[in-house]
Write a structure and sequence with these properties.
The protein is about 30% helix and about 15% strand. By secondary structure, it is α/β, with parallel strands linked by helices.
Length: about 550
């Protein structure tokens, strides 16, 4: 258990840890699955073994926290009550407070101290029987399909009586530990910074997440861990999500769609419609998270930062989760500056798939996501459709994206077609200027060639498209990208364009509604090949 006490606020606004009062109760990091090759989703991997009776935890759960009362105690309890991990070292819950003023940090410190006292008293070292989703938790209920009765699912603060520290500690399972840290937010947000700080303090070979107002069934991490043991080609695994709290039809439809992406391929192909899974519902191999991480300087090392938290600060996009280099000035990051800002989860999944990582999904509701009216998902400009579209456009054209170095067609209609075409062209111009180190100025001829490599095509789902029209559009797209490649340096690795591999255009269909997508798939001339990376839906 880490107990930490407040330190004076940094005048610079940079993140600072709270000073530790006691060291950890001995956590030895398990040997990583070094034989895993994360470069290819289909590559064979050596299974990860979690040996019995190791000192360190088998799972580190990262939880950012800001003003999470009164839901925080239930959330912490649902993680510390996880069963089935005792013989593998249990789990460590790493909560990083990010400027709470509602008593969240003080409650966490009391809970950590009480849990440590229980451990030192020898009350948390016994082993238990095989896990059950409805055992070991005093408020268990088989009738609702998870461990929580209806009164624990409320979204209204005045309708929920928070669990006490004594209740949370009593429910905690043997071997499960709690670390409490704190950071001072850099810029508008501290969520990404808190997640990075938690990851930097994690000791396990598997990394989970948790939002500070949500809930987990008691055996969820046991099931996720076993899924990774079984599927050794998966870099991570998520689950279906159940909505609790404020019930709204639109969010329910969206979650039904997300839960339907039940295979790694469906998740990969669906990422340009919306996020394919709840990031917080997942469990990830450490090597995959390290592949996502950025460092301050490859030669001098630096903290690992697998999360980005993008905001516009003083007119420039900054990464508020990367204290060492928020402004992308270091030589290793200067070409990675995004041309927009968007939510942490959207950025995470796009970078995950750009790194060619694979995630599976269990068709079980192992995460309970609390809904309420003031949620940033519903209210913040960063989660608006225009921000999310810029995010997808950025990742479509960058290395690892399906449009990288390709002729691109955008099929759609009206304002949606115009918006997608503009954002894709802007993203491509920004990427090539950065890659080729052109600077802020670019010739009109080169910019025109870049923009023409992305061709809009007016199209309504179900409308007939003749072979002659299709061939003409393909020729136009291929000629445009060949014209661009002739204006770029000869070395293809600098920009991704290979003149001998530009003969097949990528077709993006800008339709988000399920009915429209089904009509495109059933009527498009030549067939819509869902398994091919030539065809993508975007929304």
């Amino acid at each position: 258990v880490f107990l930490l006490v407040p330190a004076p606020r940094a005048t610079s606004g940079r993140a600072r840890d709270l000073s530790p009062v006691r060291p950890s109760c001995g956590a030895m990091r398990p040997a990583p699955d070094a034989a895993v090759d994360c470069d290819s989703p289909g590559a064979k991997r050596t299974r990860v073994d979690w040996p019995k009776n190791v000192q360190g935890p088998c799972i580190s759960v990262l939880m950012p926290c800001r003003d999470a009362m009164p839901w925080l105690p239930d959330c912490v309890s649902s993680v510390l009550a996880q069963v089935g991990l005792e013989g593998d070292g249990g789990l460590e819950l790493i909560v990083v407070d990010d400027g709470s003023v509602d008593g969240s940090l003080e409650w966490l410190l009391r809970c950590a101290e009480a849990l440590e006292e229980k451990t030192h008293a020898g009350l948390g070292t016994e082993t238990t029987e095989a896990p059950s989703c409805t055992t070991h938790v005093k408020f268990a209920s088989k009738s609702v399909g998870h461990a929580f009765p209806a009164d624990r699912l409320a979204w209204e603060p005045d309708k929920l009586t928070a669990l006490t520290v004594t209740q949370v500690v009593a429910n905690a399972r043997p071997g499960n530990k709690l670390k409490v840290l704190a950071v001072h937010a850099f810029g508008p947000s501290g969520q990404g910074l808190a997640l990075n700080r938690a990851f930097q303090n994690a000791t396990a070979a598997l990394i989970g997440e948790m939002e500070s107002d949500d809930l987990r069934p008691p055996d969820c991490f046991f099931q996720l861990k076993n899924a990774l043991r079984t599927h050794d080609t998966w870099d991570g695994v998520t689950s279906s999500v159940k909505l609790i709290g404020w019930d709204r039809p639109g969010m329910s439809r969206w979650m039904e769609w997300q839960n339907s992406l039940a295979t790694p391929e469906l998740m990969r192909k669906g990422r340009f419609l919306e996020i394919p899974a709840m990031r917080g519902a997942g469990l990830y191999r450490r090597l995959a998270m390290e592949k996502m991480a950025t460092t301050r300087d490859d030669q001098n090392g630096g903290a690992q930062n697998p999360y980005r938290d993008l905001w516009e600060v003083s007119g420039r996009v900054q990464d508020c989760a990367h204290v060492e280099d928020p402004d992308y000035k270091s030589k290793n990051r200067i070409a990675e500056r995004p041309n927009g800002w968007w939510p942490v989860d959207a950025d995470f999944w796009q970078r995950w798939f750009a790194e060619n990582l694979t995630a599976g999904k269990l068709n079980k509701p192992l995460y309970l996501w609390r809904q309420y009216p003031a949620q940033s998902t519903r209210t913040h400009d960063r989660c608006g459709l225009h921000r999310l579209r810029k995010c997808k456009a950025y990742f479509l054209v960058k290395p690892g994206g399906p449009c990288y170095g390709k002729a691109v067609q955008v099929w759609g209609t009206g304002d949606t077609l115009a918006a997608w075409t503009l954002d894709l062209r802007d993203a491509l111009v920004t990427r090539l200027k950065s890659t080729l180190k052109i600077g802020t100025e670019i010739s009109n001829e080169l910019e025109s060639a870049i923009r023409n490599s992305i061709q809009p095509i007016e199209y309504k789902p179900g409308a007939p498209v003749s072979w002659a029209t299709l061939r003409a559009e393909d020729a136009k797209s291929i000629n445009a990208v060949l014209a661009l490649s002739q204006r770029l340096p000869e070395t293809a690795e600098n920009h991704g364009y290979d003149r001998e591999k530009c003969d097949v255009p990528i077709r993006l269909f800008s339709f988000g509604m399920e009915k429209a997508r089904q009509k495109v798939k059933s009527t498009f001339r030549g067939g819509f090949d869902e398994q091919s990376d030539q065809f993508w839906f975007v929304a």
